[in-house]
Amino acid sequence: MAEHLDTTTEQALIEQVNAARASGTTLAIHGGKTKAFYGNPVQADAELDCSSHRGVIAYEPTELAITVRAGTPLAEVEALLAEQGQEFPFEPPHFGERATIGGMVAAGLSGPRRPYAASVRDAVLGVRMLNGKGEVLEFGGRVMKNVAGYDLSRLMVGSLGVLGVLLEVSIKVMPIPLGRITLVREQDQSSALELMQHWAGQALPITGTAWLDGRLYLRVAGSEEALSESQRILGGLPMAATEADAFWTAVREQRLDCFAGEQPLWRVSVPPATAAEAIAGVELIEWGGALRWLRAGLSAEAIRRLGAAAGGHATLFRAGANAAPPTDGVFAPLSPVLSRLHRELKRAFDPQGLFNPGRLFR
User: Nearest Cα to 249, choosing from 237, 239, 264, 236?
Assistant: First the structure.
């Protein structure tokens, strides 16, 4: 696909940032707002809407990479990739029809395939961004062979817009597997964790794991021969293809019953081998045991202690109905050293503190 240049919306964004600089106006950056719930609440003077800055810039399927503007709808890009038999390796959640590529990168959230293929950060090859000085910066490259050394583009992944405005992103893609099946086993939480640990050391084409309501779901992908051999080793009963697709979509998009409710939803990241009893109240386990979801009436401090004691950390993913976020923020507080580095990085990219004030750390 030939490169298509359009500087109209980019120039408009630059002008808006420069006007904000001159007046000291803080900006809440957004695209489709599908992930506005994630992170700390932003108290800004004005909004910077990037949803009009859209379009595919370059896509050569043989290079397994695509470059798009940040406001491009995620669904449109995934449809384009599917036409060429390709997809994103990290299976990004949308959380709504208006999800954009920029929001996908800024949030840095990955779906069930993340531990078996790549995270968003692993797949980003390069970015073009607008900093708080009104300067357009480029990091990384557009194809894998052009990326070398320490890549600052990955700093933008998961930064929730506090470092700058994403303009363009280049991302690795992968071929869609020849086939997929999902196997289901009746399993309690402890034995499910033990089995996932056992299989993690084997060369199995697993692309998704989930434990929910006493059942272990195992998704494998590959050739017909690979699927047959995987079923022999893993056991369990195969789900119908449409039912399996609906299940993994519900996991990725948080449509399962365990994601609903009034209480705060916590995302606890721990070493996969962490015992079931180390974190009580877990309703869903993903990523081979490394990601555990729970709704609990415990305080933020208590849940964070549980995560830290297991060698991980806890994030308040959704605050719940009428619930205020913790006073120190939804993310685990940084150590003094990391906090200092974060502040220095923020000052380097956004010296006036214009972008998404307080959304990442307070």
Answer: 239
Mean pLDDT of 214-240: 98
| CA distance linking residue 120 with residue 57, whole number of Å | 19
Q: How many Cα atoms are found within 13 Å in the side-chain-facing hemisphere of 250?
A: 16
As a CATH number, domain 8-175 is 3.30.465.10
- The residues, any chain, with a CB within 8 Å of residue 135's CB and separated by 6 or more, are none
Q: Which run of H or E residues covers position 104?
A: helix 101-107
Instruction: Give start-end residues of each CATH 3.30.70 domain in the chain.
Output: 180-252
Neighbours of 338 (CB within 10 A): 11
Contacts of 340 (CB under 8 A, 6+ apart): none
pLDDT of residue 208: 98
- Confirm or reject CATH 2.30.30 for domain 180-252, answering yes or no: no
φ and ψ at residue 331, rounded to 5 degrees: -95, 155
Interval 163-175: pLDDT, tens: 999 999 999 999 9
Q: For the whole prediction, is pTM greater than 0.85? A: yes
pLDDT, tens digit (0-9, with 9 covering 90-100), for 281-319: 999 999 999 999 999 878 899 999 999 999 999 999 998
